[in-house]
């Protein structure tokens, strides 16, 4: 009876399906890349269910360079890191910033894009009237960035700011504006976009490219990206591909491919196609 | 092994959401109860044009998931901001807190009205006839005979409904309200320790439920002393 | 009106087909979850009715915990924690890689665990409602425990259980909407996708509500038919 039961349990587990073996030091022939699928223009889902966007194009390019077969799947944002750690897929390319906090649990390749975070507000609000200043402040440069932040505070006092949960964006707003504004956390950027259009929140804080894509839509005619952009500091080095810490060979392969893509201008070309600016990181 | 330090870290974080959970639960249960009572009483008159809309309301709110109701009221009605602003109600639907209370109250009103309707009909007809024979008006009969008995009868079923409402407050986390379940989800996705967070958050809810059930049991015992076994 | 039909219809840019497919997923999710819950419920009822302390205690704990904790919390536990637990179990049995549950299976498991807690109570009450004389008759006829359950008790138990099970089914149908938070594309999620894509949340959530309502009404009548058949020839209490 006992042996039968053990066999039954093992059979059930077997039926659940075993995924890829752990990669560690072998060069993988096929990998699975996960993205969010709800973060235009970096990664989004078309009406017919297919994944598309800047990172999809980049992923296909990197995989071609590495001569590895890639499958790209979509997964909810807040489940990306836990699922990566458990082994559901091998790489995360979802507009994820390389932050110190995340580096504690997973590893990242070098950044393949740098895109500052900014506020989006109504055109006729205090901050909106200033418009996009085009300045970029690196949070590592404390003096300059704190000065810029202090200038922004009175313009945002008492406003309601929407941010996507579990992002570096949220950490930024909490850390520097936590006492000035009311923060609302949303599961997806789509939800905070809906609430901005509905007037429930006064401002968004997200990456400039994502904001630009959103605000191009007709219902956001009265809104604009405003103020300076922020990089560095708790935003880390930029957007990179997330990996498990033990997959060192895969990390080397990806870093090499990213180097090549930066060198021959592929990243510049892909980013100008999708966001009309060059997001290549400066080496 | 059990990481006591971790538990001690997350307990205050989770408890921070308890006031909001309690506020949502208490408000929606009270508002819902009053609505349920009015709806149940309105159906006693048997007027077609009163009963049918009420039965439709009850069917819709019992037949669709609470999540859909919350999304409809929050995002769906948010689409009609200009209209709502024009009739001066936008301030109500602008805040997720009020949207959550509206959705929860309507939901519990629908379920509650069925419970109370059954309880009112369960009052023995003879008692009502005796009251009328003694010259009591409809209102007096209701106040002195029907309602005390009906409400007492309804306590077991209604306590179920109250527990369901407390659980329902967890859905408010989906429209940005920071109550216990919302905090739990944030903690899990930050620390990846689902089991510990679940156990702690679960313990909070179970303690809450236990308190509510004990209070209601005490209330029932106080109202029906003749049933107590010495 | 045509505006609404444009979005919900089946033509180009119409989401009607997607919503119907998603309703199918909701039904499949609910049915499988309910059946899994029947298994857990039967075990739980068995435990509660047992005279031994351990099964009775475990069953009571199972029922109290999963009926008292918000279903959303249970779903988060299985979604975030489930893969980790399964991979550990898999490693114990010698598997090298990831043992994962796709979202659909996670949803079925979550609904199974939650509805099992409620179904356990229903089966327990139904078991106790079966006339004691039936049990005596089984013993008198010399039927074994299993035989008396299969031939006598369970058929009669189901008669008493059906109304309660109908209620649990409605609960399962509504809980299936919560599975949308872990990314499974069932009706609620599909409505969200449509709403986000077209910026018409009201139309989509009303459509979703309508579809849930229709499913609820149709399946409720299935249970009523089942009850009528179960009580045929008997005098209803």
Automatic annotation (TrEMBL), chain A:
Origin organism lineage: Bacteria, Pseudomonadati, Pseudomonadota, Alphaproteobacteria, Hyphomicrobiales
Swiss-Prot/TrEMBL keywords: Signal
Record SMART domains: PBPb
Family listed: Belongs to the bacterial solute-binding protein 3 family.
Domain Solute-binding protein family 3/N-terminal: 30-278
Protein name: ABC transporter substrate-binding protein
Alphabetical list of Pfam families matching this protein: SBP_bac_3 (PF00497)
Cellular component annotations (GO), alphabetically ordered: periplasmic space
Main location: periplasm
Signal peptide (UniProt feature, chain positions): 1-24
InterPro entries: SBP_3_CS (IPR018313), Solute-binding_3/MltF_N (IPR001638)
Compartments in which it is found: Periplasm
Taxonomy, superkingdom: Bacteria
Natural source organism: Rhizobium hidalgonense
UniProtKB/TrEMBL annotation, chain B:
Keyword check for Transport: yes
Coiled coil start-end: none
Family from the record: Belongs to the binding-protein-dependent transport system permease family. HisMQ subfamily.
Gene3D superfamilies: MetI-like
Residues of the ABC transmembrane type-1 domain: 18-217
GO CC entries: ATP-binding cassette (ABC) transporter complex
GO molecular function: transmembrane transporter activity
GO biological process, one term: amino acid transport
Topology in the lipid bilayer: Multi-pass membrane protein
InterPro entries given in the database record: AA_ABC_transptr_permease_3TM, ArtM/GltK/GlnP/TcyL/YhdX-like, MetI-like, MetI-like_sf
Compartmental location: Cell inner membrane; Cell membrane
Name this protein carries in UniProt: ABC transporter permease
Superkingdom per UniProt: Bacteria
Residue ranges crossing the lipid bilayer per the database entry: 20-42, 54-77, 97-116, 162-185, 197-219
UniProtKB/TrEMBL annotation, chain C:
Any Pfam family hit: BPD_transp_1
Protein topology in the membrane: Multi-pass membrane protein
Subcellular location per the Swiss-Prot or TrEMBL entry: Cell inner membrane; Cell membrane
MF terms (GO), sorted A to Z: transmembrane transporter activity
Keywords: Cell inner membrane, Cell membrane, Membrane, Transmembrane, Transmembrane helix, Transport
SUPFAM superfamilies the UniProt entry points to: MetI-like (SSF161098)
Domain ABC transmembrane type-1: 19-224
InterPro entries xref list: AA_ABC_transptr_permease_3TM, ABC_transp_permease_HisMQ, MetI-like, MetI-like_sf
GO cellular component: ATP-binding cassette (ABC) transporter complex
Phosphoprotein as UniProt keyword: no
Bilayer-spanning residue ranges: 15-43, 64-86, 92-114, 202-223
Superkingdom: Bacteria
Family in the record: Belongs to the binding-protein-dependent transport system permease family. HisMQ subfamily.
Protein name: ABC transporter permease
Organism expressing this protein natively: Rhizobium hidalgonense
Lineage: Bacteria, Pseudomonadati, Pseudomonadota, Alphaproteobacteria, Hyphomicrobiales
């Amino acid at each position: 009876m006992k042996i039968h039961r053990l066999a039954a349990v093992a059979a059930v587990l077997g039926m659940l399906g075993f995924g890829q073996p752990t990669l560690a030091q072998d060069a993988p022939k096929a990998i699975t890349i996960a993205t969010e699928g709800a973060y235009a223009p970096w990664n989004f889902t078309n009406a017919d269910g297919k994944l598309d966007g800047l990172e999809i194009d980049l992923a296909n390019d990197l995989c071609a360079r590495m001569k590895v077969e890639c499958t790209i799947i979509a997964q909810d944002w807040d489940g990306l890191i836990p699922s990566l750690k458990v082994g559901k897929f091998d790489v995360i390319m979802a507009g994820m910033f390389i932050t110190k906090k995340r580096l504690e649990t997973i590893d990242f390749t070098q950044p393949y894009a740098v895109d500052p975070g900014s506020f989006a507000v109504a055109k006729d609000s205090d901050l909106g009237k200033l418009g996009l200043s085009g300045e970029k402040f690196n949070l590592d440069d404390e003096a300059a960035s704190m000065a810029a932040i202090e200038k922004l505070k009175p313009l945002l006092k008492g406003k309601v700011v929407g941010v996507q949960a579990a992002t570096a964006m949220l950490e930024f707003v909490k850390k520097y504006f936590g006492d000035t504004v009311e923060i609302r956390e949303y599961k997806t950027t789509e939800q905070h976009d809906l609430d901005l259009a509905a007037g429930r929140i006064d401002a968004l804080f997200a990456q400039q490219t994502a904001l630009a894509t959103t605000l191009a839509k007709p219902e956001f005619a009265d809104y604009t990206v405003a103020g300076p952009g922020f990089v560095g500091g708790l935003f880390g080095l930029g957007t990179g591909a997330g990996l498990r810490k033990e997959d060192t060979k895969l990390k080397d392969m990806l870093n090499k491919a990213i180097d090549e893509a930066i060198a021959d201008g592929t990243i510049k070309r892909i980013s100008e196609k999708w966001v009309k600016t060059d997001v290549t990181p400066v080496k | 092994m059990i990481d006591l330090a971790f538990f001690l870290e997350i307990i205050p974080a989770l408890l921070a959401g308890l006031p909001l959970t309690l506020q949502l639960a208490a408000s929606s249960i009270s508002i819902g109860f009053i609505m349920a009572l009015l709806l149940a009483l309105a159906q006693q008159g048997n007027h077609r044009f009163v009963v049918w809309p009420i039965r439709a309301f009850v069917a819709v709110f019992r037949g669709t998931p609470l999540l859909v109701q919350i999304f409809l009221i929050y995002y769906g009605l948010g689409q009609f901001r200009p209209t709502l602003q024009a009739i001066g109600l936008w301030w109500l639907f602008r805040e997720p807190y009020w949207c959550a209370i509206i959705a929860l109250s309507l939901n519990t009103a629908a379920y509650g009205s069925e419970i109370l309707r059954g309880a009112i009909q369960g009052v023995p007809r003879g008692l009502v006839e005796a009251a009328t024979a003694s010259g009591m008006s409809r209102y007096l009969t209701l106040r002195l005979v029907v309602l005390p008995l009906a409400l007492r009868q309804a306590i077991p079923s209604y306590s179920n409904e109250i527990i369901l409402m407390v659980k329902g407050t967890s859905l408010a986390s989906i429209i940005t309200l920071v109550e216990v379940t919302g905090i739990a989800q944030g903690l899990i996705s930050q620390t990846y320790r689902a089991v510990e967070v679940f156990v702690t958050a679960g313990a909070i809810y179970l303690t809450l439920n236990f308190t509510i059930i004990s209070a209601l049991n005490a209330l029932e015992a106080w109202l029906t002393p003749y049933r107590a076994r010495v | 009106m045509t505006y609404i039909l444009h979005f919900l219809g089946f033509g180009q840019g119409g989401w009607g087909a997607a919503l119907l497919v998603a309703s199918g997923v909701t039904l499949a999710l609910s049915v499988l979850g309910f059946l899994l819950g029947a298994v857990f419920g039967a075990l739980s009822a068995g435990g509660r009715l047992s005279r031994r302390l351990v099964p009775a205690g475990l069953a009571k704990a199972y029922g109290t915990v999963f009926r008292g904790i918000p279903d959303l919390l249970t779903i988060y536990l299985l979604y975030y924690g489930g893969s980790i637990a399964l991979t550990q179990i898999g490693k114990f049995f010698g598997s090298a890689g990831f043992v994962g549950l796709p979202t659909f299976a996670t949803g079925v498991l979550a609904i199974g665990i939650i509805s099992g807690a409620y179904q356990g109570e229903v089966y327990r009450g139904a078991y106790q409602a079966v006339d004691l004389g039936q049990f005596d008759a089984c013993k008198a006829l010399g039927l074994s425990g299993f035989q008396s359950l299969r031939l006598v008790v369970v058929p009669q138990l189901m008669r008493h259980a059906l109304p309660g099970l109908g209620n649990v089914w409605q609960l399962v149908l509504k809980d299936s909407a919560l599975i949308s938070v872990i990314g499974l594309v069932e009706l609620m999620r599909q409505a969200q996708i449509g709403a986000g894509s077209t910026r018409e949340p009201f139309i989509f959530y009303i459509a979703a509500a309508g579809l849930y309502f229709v499913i609820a009404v149709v399946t409720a009548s299935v249970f009523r038919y089942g009850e009528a058949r179960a009580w045929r020839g008997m005098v209803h209490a």
